[in-house]
Amino acid sequence: MNSFQLDVRLTADTVFIGTFSLCEIRLMNDCRWPWLILVPRLVGAEEIHDLSPVEQAQIATETSRVATALKTHTNCSKINTGALGNIVRQLHIHVIARDENDPNWPGPVWGYGDREEYGEPELAEIVGRLQKMLSSGSGYS
Amino acid sequence: MNSFQLDVRLTADTVFIGTFSLCEIRLMNDCRWPWLILVPRLVGAEEIHDLSPVEQAQIATETSRVATALKTHTNCSKINTGALGNIVRQLHIHVIARDENDPNWPGPVWGYGDREEYGEPELAEIVGRLQKMLSSGSGYS
């Protein structure tokens, strides 16, 4: 039996936050932007439009919850969302908090410079805050 | 009474294709990538997560229809979707067909080089083909 496994590159670049009903939520370990990723726990999923209508609606709901939490957490100017997958094919949805003075504003975050990891205390702090915000609704574990 | 008006920059950069129940569908007039945009006809909308659950689900459904049509039209390697809005704040969702040999692959399309307009016959051909594909389901006008 096939079971869901997180892509090795996503595993290396991100930190576990929690899970919703469908998606695993992870923080991109890049302190340049507050940046979360949702990964639907579906074996072989690559494109949103190939999923069932119910799965698509669930992704939309969970993405919206993450976006709302990130906006509240950061009070950012704009949320950017995207599903690209040109490098890592496993379906994952980016949710990023953007501000006028952040790196590469108003351009996209993808492909810009090199990832800069959080320091340990900073990482623990942001993970804790995001877990607290995301766990306030139903379906979080 | 306020009524929906398309942002002037989106008007200048894109070409009308048709409308679904919620969104206007437009082709980015940039022949470097087959690139469609959905604009929900909602006054003042900027962030998906601020919309009602019904509106969010409708956007997901219409985005999926556009992605499926674009994939069928192009037989591309990967669909990229995104809602950024860092420059044009009016909510709009990008759906782009990507291939390994296209400009800036595997990087994003946003912010890369300058837009290159279609020639007239080429534009008429792609608009016609996309209209035909998108109109095959319900709710298209």
Supply database-style keywords.
3 helices, HIT family, subunit A, alpha+beta, 5-stranded antiparallel β-sheet, 141 residues
Describe this structure in words.
The structure is a homodimer of 141-residue chains. Chain A is an alpha+beta fold and 141 residues long. Chain A has a single domain (8-105, 114-134), classed as HIT-like (HIT family, subunit A, 2-Layer Sandwich), CATH 3.30.428. Helix content of chain A is 30%, strand content 21%. Chain A contains 3 helices and 5 strands; from the N terminus they run αβββαββα. Chain A has a 5-stranded antiparallel beta sheet. In chain A, a hairpin with a 6-residue loop joins β2 and β3 (35-40). In chain A, α2 (53-74) packs across α3. The first copy, chain A, is globular, with a radius of gyration of 15 Å. The mean pLDDT of chain A is 96. At the A-B interface, α2 and β4 of A face α2 and β4 of B.
In short:
2 copies of one chain form a homodimer. Helix content of chain A is 30%, strand content 21%.
